[in-house]
TrEMBL record, chains A, B:
GO molecular function, one term: oxidoreductase activity, acting on the CH-CH group of donors, NAD or NADP as acceptor
Lineage, uppermost ranks: Bacteria, Pseudomonadati, Pseudomonadota, Gammaproteobacteria, Enterobacterales
Domain annotation Enoyl reductase (ER): ranges: 19-340
Keywords: Oxidoreductase
Protein name in UniProt: NADP-dependent oxidoreductase
UniProt-listed PANTHER family: PROSTAGLANDIN REDUCTASE (PTHR43205), PROSTAGLANDIN REDUCTASE 1 (PTHR43205:SF7)
Organism of this sequence: Pantoea alhagi
Source species, domain of life: Bacteria
A matching Pfam family: ADH_zinc_N
SUPFAM superfamilies: GroES-like, NAD(P)-binding Rossmann-fold domains
């Protein structure tokens, strides 16, 4: 079923996942298309961004943002077209970044919208990634917390993902040695051949730690952490004194229901922080750096215009495929930034 | 046996401790007093500082400093008097801070010495603590990494110790709410009544976590970590967003030989760093802040002169008691900064 003018498809969270989400946690329903009132806009979703952080919001554990409500449409960043406008600042046909969520149509009063104009319209979906939240996360985490210096070694996990691929490329632009970590040979080849990383290690190999050591002969100065789990345990012994660890995600742990049993690695981590004088810092991009979006957007747009960045999307057609694509993403099945093409007839895309 | 003019008592590391050190790891021997050559000084030790970091140097695990050598005299900071000088910058009777180690006499070529002059001579031993390494650690870790703001809550472990007692008092001077954690009721009372902390929780109580929660009703903004272990697990859930954790010691883990078994708390810690956007940073005072000693010394001397700081030493007489005092310190038996009075007849002390 494709997007129609007559009704609004929505994906509803029907129950909270316990561990990995399953298709039973989601339901597709159909509602009438809403009508904008005075000062409102009707937005039609073209692209929906699917991101690991959403797994956190499906649980009701205390977190930095409100959980999604059971029975409600799932939230998420979207690129949308203005279908009807009763708002003085927007007219029909405008492209915007919105938080319309997992549905075809949404009303907006204009707050929080970001109008897309100029070169970004060549790839409107990039406003959700390279020139949007995930690129912003990569840019600020690497440059502000990681503070990489020419000649230093930067290691990034999920190396071909929406954040990791950008972290590594910016680190290369800054003159660093970059070693990625990714799942599978194909992704590793891509990181080296297309993204220009110096090396990429397959985390599915048993000798991950040895491989990493071999390809970081001068140790690791910056580890951009967006994965957690066993990758972290392989990285820690290689961290150099005064190393920096920006931490923006822990996808390996998002589906965990209990703490792992066995050895408690916490004292090891604390000991490393002390002995190596590490700086470990978590950040939530919009809360910590919201006021620096323009700086990021300007610099990143310039790099894009100069063809200095490669970016890969994993595009999945049709809203009804979003739950399966999301479940797969948490298992590492996507290759590139996962985006749902919700409107198959979008005007203006090239 | 007291300090003599005729021979040099020394405490030798005869074997590396496995787990907690025992008296069998140490041996007292006696050597001739060395004679200074051209450009050298003979220093007579008056006070020897005993500090938790020394436990790390008794092992040969990779660390930020060289381990002590087996068969050699143990190293350590000392306050000493110049007995003989063949060095143009020093004369007999000068007081200095030196790294003479666990012995009565040491030669020096003047490098790394710090001459004591003026008001600090009222309490020469404070040059090893309040106005020396431990005070410097407290000052820089709290102010530079912790960055406490008026009205914020600062929690400090080992609250009556050489570092913790100073951290808490500086935080009070900066207008913070200060809650200490210490071992036993006597220490807790001291922290509240003498050091002026708002509260102090006994970490030996079963309800440590609840007590801490009750006395930090607005959460914790800065946790000055110098202990590790279970105290950390009680603090973590109370950390506020954008909280800071300067980390300068992990005495609870220093005697550990294996990682604890049971749950792996590492994902919990990483998750908290992410969700709460914490900054966790290790530091080694002289390596990270060596160039700011003067700033510290000037400010701290002023607070001391204005009677705004209380400081307690745990003074133990005679060098031969150093091993037992050191072993006890790692068990929390000291109450205040542990110092060995090596010279019982020291001139100039008041």
């Amino acid at each position: 079923m494709s997007q129609q003018k007559e009704h609004n498809r929505r994906v509803i969270l029907v129950s909270r996942p316990h561990g990995a989400p399953t298709s039973a946690n989601f339901r597709l329903d159909t509602q009438p298309v809403p009508t904008p009132g005075e000062g409102e806009l009707l937005l039609r979703t073209v692209y929906l961004s699917l991101d690991p952080y959403m797994r956190g919001r499906m649980s009701d554990a205390p977190s930095y943002v409100e959980p999604f409500a059971v029975g409600d449409v799932l939230g998420g960043g979207t690129v949308a077209i203005v279908e009807q406008s009763q708002h003085p600042d927007y007219q029909q046909g405008d492209w915007v970044v919105s938080q319309s969520g997992w549905q075809d149509y949404a009303l907006s009063d204009g707050r929080g919208l970001f109008k897309l104009q100029g070169p970004v319209l060549k790839h409107p979906s990039w406003a959700l990634s390279l020139l949007g939240m995930t690129g912003f996360t990569a840019y600020m985490g690497l440059l502000d917390i990681g503070n990489p210096q020419p000649g230093e070694t930067v290691v990034v996990a999920a190396a071909t993902g929406a954040v990791g691929s950008v972290v590594g490329q910016i680190a290369k632009l800054k003159g660093c040695r970059v070693v990625g970590i990714a799942g599978g040979e194909e992704k590793c080849r891509y990181a080296m051949e297309k993204l220009g990383f110096d090396h990429c290690v397959d985390h599915r190999r048993d000798d991950l730690a040895q491989q990493l050591k071999q390809h970081c002969p001068d140790g690791i100065d910056v580890y951009f952490e967006n994965v957690g789990g066993k990758v972290f345990n392989a990285v820690l012994p290689l961290m150099n004194s005064k190393g920096r660890i920006p931490l923006c995600g822990l996808i390996a742990d998002y589906n965990s229901t209990d703490l792992p049993q066995g050895q408690d690695h916490l004292p090891l981590f604390q000991g490393a922080i002390l002995r190596k004088r590490l700086r470990v810092q978590g950040f939530i991009i919009n809360q910590d750096y919201g006021d620096r979006f323009e700086e990021f957007f300007r610099q990143m747009s310039q790099w894009v215009a100069e063809d200095r960045l490669v970016f890969r999307e994993h595009m999945v057609d049709e809203l009804e495929n979003a739950p399966e694509a999301f479940i797969g993403m948490l298992e590492g099945k996507n290759f590139g930034k996962l985006v749902i093409r919700v409107a198959m007839d979008q005007p203006g895309e090239q």
